[in-house]
Each structure stands twice: as C-alpha cells, then as structure tokens.
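Q: A reviewer asked whether we had any structural model of the full assembly, not just the individual parts. We don't, so I'm hoping you can provide one. Inputs are below.
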Amino acid sequence: MTGNLDHLLDERLAQLFTEDTRAEEPQTQYADDLEPLLRLAREIKALPRPEPNPGALRATQARVREAAMLKQAERRGLFSRLLAGRRVSLAFAQALAVVIAVALIGFGTVAASADSLPRSPLYPVKRTSERVQLLLTFSPGGKAQLHLYFAERRLNEAMRLMGCCQLLDEATLMSMLEETDLAIKMICALPMPEAEPLVNRALELTAQQQTCLSQMKGEVSTEESCVLDEAIAACRCNEQMLIGEAPDMHQPTVVPE
Amino acid sequence: MPQKSDTLALVERAKRYEPQALAELCQLYFKDIYSYVYYRVSNVRDAEDLTDDVFLKMVEGIRSCRAREERSFLGWLFRIANNSVIDYHRRQAVRNHLPLDEKHLPPYAGPEVPVETKLTQERLQQALLQLTDEQQQVIILGFIEGLSNAEIAHLLGKSEGAIKSLQHRGLASLRHILAGGGDPL
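A: Here is a predicted structure for the entire assembly that you could use as a starting point for your response.
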C-alpha cells in the first residue's frame, strides 16, 4: 500500500467516524484499493453492540458491592491496627521514657554519690553501687582489683573526713581494712603470673595506708591515736602477708614514728 | 439513573469504596466493556465472566485510577478489559477444549435484521478473531467502541501513527480473510 493510499484511507476513515458523507465518495485514483477497505470499515462500524444480559449486570453489581464492603472492612481493620499499633507504641514509649528517666536519675545519683563521704545522704548509694559492681564482676582477678580500689576509696574518705571535719571515722577505717583483707585473700588464690601486678598494687596500697594513717595520728587525740596504731599494725600485717607472696620483690615499708 | 457526566464524582466516591458509587460505575460502563470483551472472545458466557472480572478488578484498583475526565476513566477500564482478555487467550491456548455450542455465538442484532445481514456480521466477527491481538484491539476499540486514535494510542501505549498503521493492516487482513485468503496478512 502506498503512502498516498494510507493518507487517503486515514482521511476517509476520519470522515467515516464524523459521519461525513464524503467518505462514501469513491477516490478515482485509488478507488479499487480504497473502496473495499472503506466498505469493510463501514460494515465493522455497523456491527451491533451486543446487549448484555440484565441478570449479568445485576450479578456483577452485587459482587462489586460485596467487594466494596470487604474493602471498607479491610480499611477499617487497617485503621484499627494502625491505631492499636499507635497505642502500643505510645505505651511502649511511655514505659521506655520511665526506664530512661529512672536510669538517668540512677546514673546521676550514682555519679553524684562518687565523691560523697560517710554520713552524707548519698553515701549509701555509693556503697550500694560498689556492691553492684562486685556482683557484676565475675573474675577473681577483677573482684580483687575492685576490693583494692574500694580500700583506697575508704582511705581517701577517712583522710577527707579528717581534713574537713577533724573526724576519725572508725567505721571507715574498718571498712578499708576489710576491703584490703578481701583483696589479699583473692590475690593469694590467684596463680602467680596473674597475681603479680595485683600483689604490687596491694603492696603500694598497704604502704600508702600506713603512711596516711601515720600522718593522721598527729591530728587526733591519744585515744584515737591508739585506734590508728591498731589500723597501721593491721596494714603492716597485710604487707607482710603480701611480701610472703612475693618475697624477692619488696621490702617492708618503714613507717616513720 | 447515573449519567456519564457524573463519572468523575462517582470515581471519587468509589475511591472511598462506597458500594453505591461502584455499582453506578458498573451500570454506566457495563455495556461498553461487555461489547469490547464480547468481540474479543466471541463467547457470551466468557464475555460475561470477563466483564464481571473487569469490574471486580476496578474495585481492586480504583484507588490507583488517575482519571481526570470521563473518557480517561473509560480508557482505564478498557485497559483492564484488554489485560483480562489477553489472560483469557493465554488460558485458552493452554486448554483449548471449549464445547462447540458455546463457541462463537453471534451478537444480539435485533429482530428486524435480515438473515443475510446476520450472516455477513457473523462472518465479519469470525474474521475479526483471526486478526492479530493488536489489530483486534485497534479495530474493535476504534470502529465498534468509537474511541479516537489518540485515545487508543494512550490506552495501548503507542503512537497515533502506530495505531493508524495497525488499523490499515487490520483492514487489509480482514479483506484478505473475507475474500477467502485464509490466514491474515
């Protein structure tokens, strides 16, 4: 089919659809090719549009209504789930906020209690957090380190009480000695390569304890001085015990009288 | 009785899955879709089933319909119908064993139509079924359903030039088939 014939067919078909009577006129040059196609197009256009069965329409409408109601129910279900999800999220967020608040308050309190001294309101928090730290530490070496650290803390507390309040707190000294005893017992139970750095640290601590307690003697009464002497003796005993663990490493500390 | 001019308002309501709006859209376009499907499958029962399927798919997809005018909504429905017909022919290709009495029933032509005309129409309808899928779409949508070339082009995702070309080749093939030439050109 030539380009001209295509063009003419387009033109005639367009006229056919606009009910233009010129579509009926034969085209002289391409009449033989064009006329049968146009006649065919008219025949197709004249084909009757089939009438659907009214029952089929009603059945489809019924199914469409049913599908629409299902969709509505689905959407309601979706909204309910979304709302329920939001409620759960809200409850979860509230619970999380409470936990975070408690945790923050707890952390804040524990942090604030770190510098507290015996008889202050936050001191029990400090001691409790120490117990928790011990509970959460499972290795004997780690526990020994913690006891050494707590013993050092008690010594610092005793010195600060003496410095700020001229107070010798026997309970704090007792606690220092207890922590030191516990640390030494654990260190002695450890195998030597692992125990060595802890023995060194414990020796430094006992030496420091003897030095600090001796310094405190100049600021207390005679009666309190006896308490300090007993504490210094206990520290020296601990030191001896540690030297027994590492005899070739250290000599006993000479405490100035 | 709903009017086609109300289509866009109905579509908006249908997007909220209002059963009445969807049923009215069904009533407005049932005949158009049924007619198109009928000429594509030439079987009353299958045409009814497929038309039913088209309107159920309309419910499924109505929220994604972006029609801004009545004709584009009709085009959207024809696209669903076209896909349903393609699926139908695929299924038929797999199980091609329909009972003979259900195949190729003639369309309703009214009591006043002469027998000769009916026979001609039946021959034409049978010939249409022998065209390629795309030629059938273009001829039926353009000549029977009255869609413009631009509308068909939009519906099928082709250029207007391609639609015209398909029309010409379709008519030439029909002529060849009706002249006893057998297979389409």
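A: Points you may want to mention in the reply: Chain B has a mean pLDDT of 84. Chain B touches chain A through 50 residues (CB under 8 Å).
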